[in-house]
Amino acid sequence: MSGEWLLVDGAPIADAMVLSHPEQAARLRAACPPAAHTAALAGDPCFDRLLAARSHRERFRRALGVRSGQRLVVLNSTWNPESLFGDGGGEDLLPALLPRLTGELPADDFRLAAVLHPNIWLGHGPGQVKAWLDRARRGGLALLDPLEGWRQALLAADLVIGDHGSVTYYAAALGTPVLLGAAPLDGLDPTSPVADFVRTAPRLDPRRPLRRQLEAAITGHRPLPGPAELTTSVPDKSADLLRALFYELIGIAEPDWPALLDPLPLPPYEPPQHAAPLHVLTLLTGEREVTIRRFAEPSHEPDEALDGALEDVVGGAVEGMAEGPIAGDVAASGGRTGRCGREAEEAHTAVHEDATDREAVATADVIFRYGAADDPRLGPPEVWGTEVLAQWPNCALAAYISEPGVCTVRTRAGDVLRLTAEPSAADPAAHASALHAALAAGTPLPDLTAHGLTVRTARATHAVQVTDLRPPPRTPR
């Protein structure tokens, strides 16, 4: 609001400066008195569109492929060397943070998306930005359209990691939990609401394990009052106020019909694509019940990640078996022993068939892919599974995901199975990994086909029907 931006030869550049709140007019009078008379209170059309679309939150979450029990974390960066993304240097936070997030956060418990300021794309070029973020994208990160998709992502988000830009401030105004990964105050009016927000909003500490920080930010969230109160003083009124201002400046009468804003469109369906090798931890917590955590190409296996994969289940298992003979064994071993004396955690690798790391494909226990069941290039899913097992001798199970909640599995033992769950359940590739763990632990296949498989992620339990697709044996005459 300084004169260098608002004045030319001492006169205001604009006939009207649209403001969304009276506090901005007060700061304008203090910062640039010659332009004070141009202030026009007309609200915030962007925020009004957000408010009008809040009832579509679940649709926006489904468009991003957010499944039952998952939390959507949106990362946002403005255009500034001190922003979360930075200027492309080696010390910038976001390019280093994203692979950690995809590697430390269980893939079935968190969905990750990033919204970068349009000038980041224009300044560095789409190819360079995608190259910087390639590992995170292979780990399941969605890079959203910076012009059209970010509003819907904010409404869908459970948490936003951002900086001092307007998108992060909008998230706080909506009441969404926010963590600041970058919080520079230089260049901000110290009396502005944004500066106050940057001073008071909780911070992300990149030196500490990430999952617990994100969980704490969500569960302990207390909305800051400033953003919601100061983003606009006339919510849902911007269309009327702006059109009245425009026609007043033009000097003609307004039309008779109401002034309306375009509703936010439903984004295209963009489910997560995990092209990176997945490190899968499984735990048998009951008969035909498997708890699973999948991590995309983790650089290491931090204790917190492993404990996080077990702690929710072990606590429930010990509590549920408090009077049973196994309870003491589980508690005494720190949760490392499951029922029937089995080791609690087992690990295997699951890889997309088209992963760029061909060595990972060659050594994978589970190989999966996504496609239509009638795709003529791949053949029927059963045939595809036969080809995969023939090509990759180390693979124990091949899974073809043909639609949400459904996959066809072929095992090394020759079984052909269909796994079916609700469309909002976990990724069917996770169900396939859970089946692999159950079979490897000795669970009889007839028990699974008769009673189904229960798959547990951190915040959801999924019932999976197991159907044997092989024709029944012929009865001798």
Offer a few descriptive terms.
477 residues; nine-stranded mixed barrel; 20 helices
Number of strands: 18
Q: Biggest β-sheet, characterized?
A: 9 strands, mixed, barrel
> Any low-confidence stretches, pLDDT <50, length ≥5?
302-306, 316-342
Any idea what the shape is?
A: elongated
Average pLDDT figure: 89
Strand order in the largest sheet: 10-11-17-18-16-15-14-13-12
Distance between the termini: 92 Å
Query: What is the rounded Rg?
Result: 27 Å
Beta-strand level of the residues, as a percent range?
15-25%
Could you state the oligomeric state of the chains shown? single chain
The percentage helix is 25-40%
- The total count of helices amounts to 20
The computed structural class is alpha/beta
